[in-house]
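REQUEST ID: PR-0412
SUBMITTED BY: lab tech R.K.
PRIORITY: routine
TASK: structure prediction, single protein chain
INPUT:
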Amino acid sequence: MATLKEKLAEVEDARELLGNSYEVTKQQVIASFVRTHSEYIPLQGRDFIQDLTTIKNNITNSSTYEWKPATVAKTEYKILVAGGTAGIGKTRYGRELFKKLKQDVNLQESIEKPIDFVYILLDFSNGVQLDAGDSELPIVIEILVGLQIAYAFFIGSNYDVAFPTFRQTVQLLNLMSRFNSDTVITGIRQHLSPSGDRLLCLFLHIDEFQNIFEFPDWKADKKIGKDSKPKGIFKGILYEVAQFMLGKSNLRFVQPFLSGTAPQDIAWQKEPTMYSFEFVNCSLLTMQARINIMNHFATTSGFSEKTWDLEERMYFLLCDTGGLPRAIQCLLECCFGNKYDRTEYFFKNIDSLNYDDIHNNMARDLDTMYGITEWAFTNKELVEVIIARCLAIIPSRRSDLLSDNHSETLESLERDQHLVLTDYSEDGHVLITVPPIFIDIYIRALRSLTGTLKKSFLPGWVMEWNGFELFVAEYVAFRINALIRLGHKTVALKNIFRGAYGSTTLLDKKVELRNTTVKQLRNKFPMTASVIDQQSEKVDFKSGMIVNGDKAPFADSFIVFEKSKLIVGIQNKLRKGSFEESDMWEEHEKNVTAIKNAPAGLCINNYTVITVFISSANFKGNIADYCKKPLKDCLMIYRHNFEDFFGHVLSCRAAVQISRECNPNFTPPDHVYNLDPWFQGYPNDIDGMTFSLYTDVIDLANSNKKRRLDYYDEVPQSPIPETVSAEGIPLTDSIYPTQSSSSSV
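STATUS: complete
OUTPUT:
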């Protein structure tokens, strides 16, 4: 029987059928196949420990199978799956996981035999994609898989030959039957280890697996097991490659790794006796991870991290990406050039760059890549619902139809568009996340947001005077209107002020909903019986969200729930340093007094006052203790639960804006000089220095020690008690199920 090497030699001898010589150098193959643009970016925010453990357990089970096969069921062997929206880094995750596996010294020692590690990528969108040739040829699953693996290992990396051409050549040479997967994998092992004493550990990366589901023309099906029905092409491929996880495969171990945009389709394929699926956590990158990436490019280009970390517009651009790896890559290419050859120029000229142009170029490139504007024009109603559910943080189900006029489920939108669905609760609810740069493109196309909320997505956004008060007021109104759009007439306060800390009784208090607009007052409510807006027109203050006049004795903004006899005042404090429980109570008592002393004509003296205290500072106290005994009629939202309240998309941009007020690094120099007499004598010494908090500036005056900004680092807090959710409140309302700790898919 001819060896695989001899078979391939026969194929090479028949290359005149291809009409050309296709040899390329090994260096060219490595450069084009291994080094992609995304891999110029340092890997951040990925934890491989669990997945490496899974692979090592598979190998251990495989070794056990050799001498005691009955002790390990198929379900103990796990196929790894990376799912999620396009551009979230699934393909790179597989590559990097293989690198980590190859570097694992403990694994090689535990196996007690030399190992040949091999990475093979089967790309079903651009490489070994299925076509009519696969259904027309008289081949079965084991031949199809064998052809694909042989092509990826022996042909694709050495010759400029497309897979259909290779497949046709094999058919013309009448060699099709010899390319079954067993023979091919054995041939790879023999090719790498002629002596035959080394274990082949083949990491088989099946990319864009959703295209396998979408191939309807497969005819050469096969029954697997006695009296069983045909499995279909996807299950057939999985069964074919997964059998090599078993020890009976004789010094051959294959770890299947699937990546694609349809993870739920895989879950539906699961059978009780089938190999198990384990979904890897391929999530959006945190802001700290994005900052680390910028630091990497600064330091590797010979610049200090301080070169850029005071450039707040760069923070906005990092926020715009939403942590989507492909958007980050697009941003970096706009900054550093497509080949990352303008990195030095970028950091040298960082103070004079046009950041609006960078933002607009990134938006243009992503729009071209994803077709966002065209899709938004075609699906206006659907896009508006997506924006509402995303910004208002409305839990949804993957099976939800977001519009009566569209048949796509939320799950299919994640697969086909640019949504990220994050698991929210154990009963299947998810949250929708859309990167801010995508929302900006939506807004420009549809003009679907107004006011400060719209401005917050534009490049160069700067909060105007009293901008944070207006931003919060517009956001609360937006949330209320989004809940109404979903059909809710009454909700609990915790559904409006999501993530707030407060008593269960207060958070569960139901209030009626009505369509809400934002009005800005000229006068100081409630000092006069007449309430006038900025245009000097009389306002029905019970009809919407009201932004109070400057230096009013009551809250910065408020909303009246007339049927419930509640007036909810929002007190915004952009503090430097920290705040205490007494600060909140002082504000609440001030609000209560103002309503009690209000003119009788306003008819609100007997209303219950609820104070929502929103601060950019840290809470100076033990949050766990506070949750056990919170202040009466008070809700607290502060730096550490900003994301719970504003959501992933808005919290980042709000934090950067707030930093102008609460971060000395973005404060005018004369303000810093006036904080302490020490600075007035050393103006040059503080030029370019960075600080964590205003207290650090004072510390510097006292100790003359330099400290560095790490604005996004979390300040350690006491753990929240088990009776309180991760958001600080027990979520029992049906529209906000209890949040689980499960990772996103």
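NOTES: The CA atoms of residues 373 and 444 lie 8 Å apart.
REVIEWED BY: pending
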